[in-house]
Design a protein that fits this description.
By secondary structure, the chain is α+β, with helices and mostly antiparallel strands. 43% of the residues lie in helices and 18% in strands.
Length: 102
């Protein structure tokens, strides 16, 4: 499989020292993105949700690695045809790997 198109992991989450309800995602010394929760009128995300969003983003490289390993273990070819839920799940996993890893 081709090399990944994204910044390699591991990625980490740090709480922003400057902004309330904000978590930053880093790879080594590279700032990648931030999860920001707005607290206006009670319609925003809670600090717990904002942190969970950042952690999900930071887990992206590991999630792709897990998908790659799962598909390799299952030995399901990319061209597998079928209509079952399991087949759809493997097809979607292949699509995500193709999107992010080539």
């Amino acid at each position: 499989m081709a090399e990944s198109k994204f910044t390699p992991g591991p990625w980490r989450v740090e709480k922003s020292a400057h902004f309330q309800n904000t978590y930053r995602v880093w790879a080594r010394d590279v700032f990648l993105c931030a999860a920001v929760g707005w607290l206006e009128s009670g319609n925003g995300t809670t600090p717990e949700e904002t942190k969970a969003n950042a952690e999900l983003m930071a887990d992206a490289p590991r999630l792709l690695e897990v998908l790659r390993n799962l598909l390799a273990y299952a030995e399901i070819p990319r061209s597998w045809d079928g209509i079952g839920e399991a087949e759809q799940a493997f097809t979607q996993a292949h699509e995500m790997l193709e999107k992010h890893c080539g």
